[in-house]
Amino acid sequence: MTEPHPAPLEPTTLSARFFRLIKPVAAFSVSEVARKGQLSAIDQGVISAGNFLASVLVSRYVSPTEFGIYTVGFLAVLFVRAVQEGLIIQPLNSIGAGLDADEFRAYVSATGLAQLILALASAAAAAGIGWLLTAAGNDMAGPTLFALWFSFLTWQFQEFIRRVFYTRGQVLRAVVNTLLQNLVRILLVIWLGTSHQLSGIGGLNAIGWGGLAAFAVGFWQARGLWTARGLKLRATWEQNWKFGRWTLGGTVLNWVAVQFYPILTAGMISFAATGAYQALQNLVAPIHVLLRASDTFLTPRISKIYAREGFQPLRRVMKLSYLLLGIPVGLLLLGAVEFSAPLLHLLRGDTYLPFRQGIYLLAIFYALWYAYWPLQTALKAIRFSRPIFIANALAIVTMLTVGLWAIQRWGIYGTMAGQVLNALIINLVLWLSWRKVSLQAKS
Question: How many degrees, rounded to 5, is the angle at CA 357 between CA 351 and CA 362?
Answer without folding.
Answer: 105
